[in-house]
Amino acid sequence: MTVGIDQINFYVPSFYVDMAKLAESRQVDPNKFLIGIGQNEMAVSPMSQDIVSMGANAAKDIITEDDKKQISMVIVATESAIDSAKASAVQIHNLLGIQPFARCIEMKEACYAATPAIQLAKDYLANRPDEKVLVIASDTARYGLESGGEPTQGAGAVAMMITQNPRILELNDDAVAFTEDVYDFWRPSGQSYPLVDGALSKDAYIHSFQESWNEYARRHHISLDYFKSLCFHVPFTKMGKKALDSILTDDIDEQTKERLTSGYDAATYYNRYVGNIYTGSLYLSLISLLETHHELNAGDTIGLFSYGSGSVGEFFSGKIVEGYRDALDIEGHKNLLNHRTEISVDTYEAFFKRFDNLEFNHEVELANESKGIFYLESIHNHIRNYNTLN
Question: Is 104 among the residues known to form the active site?
């Protein structure tokens, strides 16, 4: 019996801003964004797309009527919570029409929470062969206009169906977590934007990776040549590359270095055109690896590093399942990214301010959405009302 990822899908809003144009508007050398942090485009979230609608949109295309009867738990991982009491999983459960006798919870630890959600689902399903757990990572990364973190914003959601005998990735029983109390990135209650110590954040990320990786290697007597590729939490694509480079030391053979470096490029291709989606970033990277790396084979082991500021890191692994590509929506994901609408920096700023002020402009923001998409229609008396586009 194995447990792992049976289906995986992502959703991003239908708008993006070109990072070179954003750099020019901010009077910054475009290469600082394109090369320095490794980002080409940044997904822009309209007011009509929040963590609930994006999460439901990511999940709706991988859920069948039979799945709705078998899902016994829905977990949403987010650091963009819209309520301090009610779990967004409850609203997503309703939108998707999942059977009523299901647990619904929300989990938080910065960008890390989707990983313990998966581990919880894995343990829960060990003795429940006929049940499924839906794990959703959904976030909008916002740092403020013209802030230092602005070029590392983004928005999107990843949905994963966790089951026994999965069709995509079998999860191994080898996770190692590392926790350290550090104020590298945090958002006090009531604060619209996070507080960030940029230099400390980079150092804390790399330190967490090295600690969890070294302990993983020590416990399991495993070296880097065991892995076909590695996936990282990717707030921006250069961040994970710095962590990878930190362990590709002189004693690592060139073949392993080339294989892991090539794999990293494939694993961050989608992220380069979406930006930071917090809890979903690692799993968007996993999708990117599975769909754009052309030398993966059944039985290959993939290492994954999950990180959440504050901080918790975790290194774990999974084994690729025979026929995994048949369970992926490669063309659908390419179409989603390729058919988005580029908006000007001025329009992006208008979107950003509407989001801050809870102001809707459906005529503009729904103009290019697909039929059947969930969206936030209105907010009355602090109650969020969702609808689907006909």
Answer: no
